[in-house]
Amino acid sequence: MNAEEQVEKALDLFWNHGVADTSYADLVRHTGLSRKALYSVWADKTELVHDTIQLYRGRVLGGIIAFLEPPSFSKLGEFWDVMEASINTPEWIGCYLFRSATGELRDDPVIVATFEEYVLALKNRFKTAMTTAKANGDLPESFDADIAAWQAVSILSLMSAFGGQSGYGPNVKALLDTGRRTCGITP
After folding, report:
1. Which CATH number goes with the domain that contains 170?
2. CA–CA separation, 6 vs 130, rounded Å?
């Protein structure tokens, strides 16, 4: 098993059980590495957490942002449709980065920086898509793309919080519909 596969396994543990509730014994069992091998690659659990965040950022978060390219009204609709399809599973437990940045890792500088970078990138993609939709006549001239973009990101954050507590359910469904409306889309 290569290092990326080991980080994937650690990501699975951290995402599903939380970093604090994942012991080195759990990591040894899940990755197949010995404790000594784990320490030789990652001096402490924090380094491994940082690697899992970077893996998650590349595999999941980058894809989420990419759904808003090229910026258009139809891409806004596709974004919410893809989001709903991907989280409408019994296994969904919220966004690993959002949960990490607002939970036990909220003071970790790497987590904080990654969270801020992602939130701003997502907000700016929403704003660009809505501004383009407005310029194309798909949204009214009075539509405030900046406020709506912040609202959309806030809705995603709240969806993640509900996901962490109870998975996909009526509250998350209502928030998805609210996200669509925030972007000027009628569900």
Report:
1. 1.10.357.10
2. 39
